[in-house]
């Protein structure tokens, strides 16, 4: 029933998409260092972007992690550039300046998530213990002593996400390299929220991390906005095994995934630059996977096993240029 309600909401938004000046409301975006590119969720095959944010006024230099707020704004975390978070209007295009820009007194930002109150949760791997900074919707400019959530049990942290109850999920690795996804009860408090769930253990099938804690994380996490299923993109240390594991809503403990997408037919490859999140979900349950050369693999709702993508979005404007994989986010009708 929840999926049906979401599909009806999704279809109603399609009819209203012409209200957006550039990309339709239902679009997927890539953060590509000095630019952000958007593509319609209906796109398949070679296609030109419907939105490109690029130029000196954008202040984009190392944009990698990207998230989208409930009002359609594009929130990007830059890996370098003095801990800069740049937020763009939904219709930003060309050399448009951010609507807001924030700076943290740190660097190496590798993940960003936005809750329904438009708080930004930004993770830095420069800090130890790793810190997730909580930035309110009114924040702008240099941030002095922001609220932080410390997670000393995971280092490095690979990615963050927000569930339908406004709780923060943090994916990373412990000191022995074991991969885990923790849920903090940020719906109750943003200051020292307790951990209420942890997915970890042999039954999860999640690959361990390199023994060097400073090596880039090998996972990315995302939530299906209609079902709250957790998707975990994960790569083995030697890079030979790549998978997207799907866990039931509110899964906890040493639990097996309900589905695993993996195999040669999927076309899914290894991670991009540190901080470039790999996966995102649309409100109708499609999985979007970022690949090099502005290529996006799209998997149907409920996809499992060694299955090919149902869509492949390929930017037709890059020519023979080789482009590293950017971070990815989907803007679509939501069921909340």
Describe the structure.
- The chain is mostly beta strands and 336 residues long.
- The protein has one helix at 2-15, and strands spanning 27-31, 35-40, 45-47, 51-54, 63-68, 74-78, 84-88, 100-103, 109-114, 120-124, 131-135, 141-142, 147-150, 157-162, 168-173, 179-184, 195-199, 219-223, 230-235, 242-247, 259-262, 279-281, 287-291, 295-299, 311-315, 327-331.
- The strands form 6 sheets. It has a 5-stranded mixed beta sheet, with no helix packed on it. It has a 5-stranded mixed beta sheet with strand order 5-6-7-8-12, with no helix packed on it. Strands 4-2-1-26 form a 4-stranded antiparallel beta sheet, with no helix packed on it.
- Mean pLDDT is 91; it is low at 1-20.
Strand content: 35-45%
Number of strands: 26
Helix coverage percent of residues?
A: under 10%
Shape: globular
Low-confidence stretches: 1-20
Gyration radius (Cα, Å) is 18 Å
Strand count, sense and closure of the main sheet?
A: 5 strands, mixed
What is the average of the pLDDT values? Answer: 91
Note the total helix count: 1
Largest sheet, spatial ordering of strands: 3-25-24-23-22
What's the SSE pattern?
HEEEEEEEEEEEEEEEEEEEEEEEEEE
Distance between the termini: 14 Å
């Amino acid at each position: 029933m929840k999926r049906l309600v979401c599909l009806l909401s999704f279809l109603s938004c399609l009819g209203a998409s012409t209200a957006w000046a550039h990309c339709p409301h239902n679009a997927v975006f890539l953060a590509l260092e000095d630019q952000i590119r958007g593509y319609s969720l209906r796109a398949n095959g070679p296609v030109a972007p419907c939105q490109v944010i690029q130029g000196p006024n954008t202040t984009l230099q190392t944009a990698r992690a990207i998230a989208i707020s409930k009002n359609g704004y594009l929130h990007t975390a830059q890996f370098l550039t003095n801990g800069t978070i740049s937020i763009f209007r939904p219709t930003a295009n060309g050399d448009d300046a951010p609507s807001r820009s924030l700076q943290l007194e740190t660097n190496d930002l590798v993940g960003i998530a936005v809750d329904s109150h438009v708080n930004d949760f930004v993770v830095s791997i420069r800090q130890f213990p790793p810190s997730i900074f909580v930035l309110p919707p009114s924040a702008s400019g240099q941030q002095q002593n922001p609220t932080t959530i410390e997670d000393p049990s995971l280092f490095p942290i690979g990615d963050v996400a927000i569930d339908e109850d406004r709780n923060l999920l943090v994916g990373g690795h412990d000191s022995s390299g074991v991969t885990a996804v923790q849920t903090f009860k940020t719906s109750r408090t943003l200051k020292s929220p307790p951990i209420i769930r942890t997915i970890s253990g042999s039954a999860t099938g999640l690959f361990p991390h390199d023994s060097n804690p400073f090596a880039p994380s090998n996972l990315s996490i995302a939530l299906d906005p209609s079902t709250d299923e957790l998707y975990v993109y994960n790569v083995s240390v030697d890079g030979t095994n790549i998978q997207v594991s799907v866990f039931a809503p509110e899964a906890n403990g040493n639990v097996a995934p309900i589905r695993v997408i993996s195999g040669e037919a999927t076309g899914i490859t290894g991670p991009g630059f540190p901080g470039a999140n790999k996966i995102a979900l649309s409100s109708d349950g499609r999985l979007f996977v970022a690949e090099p050369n502005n290529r996006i693999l799209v998997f149907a709702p409920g996809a499992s096993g060694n299955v090919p993508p149902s869509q492949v979005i390929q930017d037709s404007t890059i020519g023979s240029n080789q482009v590293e994989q950017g971070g990815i986010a989907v803007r679509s009708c939501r069921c909340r």
